[in-house]
Request: fold
Amino acid sequence: MKRQWTSWTILVAFMSVMTLPVQAAMMSTEQVVQTQQAQVDRQNLTQMLDRTDVQDQLVAMGVSADDVQQRVAAMTDTEVAQLNGQLADLPAGEGVLGVVALIFVVFVITDVVGATDIFPFIHPVR
Reply:
């Protein structure tokens, strides 16, 4: 009797479990490479922004390190790739000041658009 009751309990438990549809698809090599490149781009940008000289320049412009980290985390993979591309195109002599100026411009644009609120003196366009 106990065995039959256990069997029925297990059968009811299996029948009551709702199965969800599963969708699987093959990822192309291009998709895998893009995913990996996005991770590398984000890591490179984060490492560059973690440098003390870059952080000192950003603080001098009124941007805290936490704001920078939050904004980079909120950026899309495309935005990170574009920013890394622009950083790579800078001449070697521009160094930290060029990087900070570029990041400052990106933050000003995102403030104007209303995506961030870093600078109190910039009012977003509505």
Summary: The chain has a mean pLDDT of 77. The first helix runs from residue 2 to 16. Helices lie at 2-16, 29-49, 52-60, 65-74, 77-89, 95-113.
